[in-house]
Amino acid sequence: MERIFVDTDVCLDLLTGRQPHNIFAAQLFSLADLKQLELCVSSLAFSNLNYILSRQYSQAESRKILLKFKTLVTVLAVSEKTVELALLSDFKDFEDGLQHQTALEFGIEAIITRNLKDYKRADTIVMTAEQYLLSRNL
What is the pTM of this model? Predict the structure, then answer.
């Protein structure tokens, strides 16, 4: 099964219904739900997602949403090595550097994001959810 790393922005598209991006995020996560694709996120993503969702929902509702979301993804740990490599990287956005290094550390060949410009220095394939789905003829 193909393993793809999903950046936090795509997760937020799904969880907050940000249009028009939520359509592609929903299609991507549906593939994971059908076990046709393994979607991976860093453990850091849950902290960021909880922070943003708690601005829109109560703490209890945010946690409920994240518990359901967790069933769709594989959570990858951010290690000390990952943090060091991200600090030493050329990524302007430290969070993106962490996401990139986590994907590399776990041997994931592609990152799905909406911030393509922030991943210019990536050592892996980077595309939007829409581009990924088009590449699979979906």
Answer: 0.91
Query: What is the residue range of 45's domain?
Result: 3-77+104-116+124-135
User: In Å, what is the CA distance from 116 to each residue of 10, 22, 66, 67, 79?
Assistant: 12, 17, 25, 28, 24
What pLDDT shows up at residue 71?
95
Alpha-carbon distance 16 to 133, whole Å?
A: 20
Cα of 63 vs its chain's centroid, Å: 18
Picking from 66, 72, 76, 69, the residue whose alpha carbon sits closest to that of residue 108 is: 76
Domain of residue 11, CATH code: 3.40.50.1010
Residue 117's pLDDT is 85
Number of domains in the chain: 1
Per the model's pLDDT, the better-predicted residue between 64 and 117 turns out to be: 64
